[in-house]
Amino acid sequence: MSSRDYMNTSVQEPPLDYSFKSVQMVQDLVTEEPRTGLRPVRHSKSGKSLTQSLWLNNNVLNDLKDFNQVVSQLLQHPENLAWIDLSFNDLTTIDPVLTTFFNLSVLYLHGNGIHRLGEVNKLAVLPRLRSLTLHGNPIEEEKGYRQYVLCNLPRITTFDFSGVTRADRSTAEVWKRMGIKPKKVRAKQDVL
Question: What does the pLDDT look like over 94-152, one tens digit per residue?
Fold first, then answer.
């Protein structure tokens, strides 16, 4: 199968779905059976999946150690990985390994424990990233969260499942020109 044929067919392939498997370590994926959907994932002659989507949501992953190696074992063309769903895990940072997938266009990280807004900056190197979710992380509580993300990731067209509007772009551009930094929202203290 030519590279062009692969790109055309794999986009339509169902995801390799390891969601709701209580996976604790990325290495466990090698021995874990993926969930089956209405359409089965096709495999190459070597047994690797012919898909560009990997769903790891609703597990208990707290790091992505050995992610590249495991993805290479699972996918025939890991370099073409376009969609990664890591939502509802226990991640506290955006692992730099995610920035090695230059064809990544959809990345779901909502419902984790990411607490430093600066983590978002790592994703700026992904030229095709268009859809990103981060809601449900502690960073969402920072004032200016949306503007900060859109300022640093100007190619995003969908953020937290909402389309990016012209007004969003305009506000993000103002933030960028003015060098505005987001502020942590402080919990109100009861005054006696």
Answer: 999 999 999 999 999 999 999 999 999 999 999 999 999 999 999 999 988 999 999 99
Segments making up each domain of the chain, as ranges: 3-14+27-178
Q: Are 93 and 113 in contact (CB under 8 A)?
A: no
Residues with Cβ < 8 Å from 48, sequence gap 6 or more?
Answer: 73, 74, 75, 76
Query: How much is the pTM?
Result: 0.89
Domain 3-14+27-178 class in CATH: alpha beta
Q: What is the total residue count of the chain? A: 192
Residues 6+ apart with CB under 8 A from 130: 105, 106, 155, 156, 157, 158
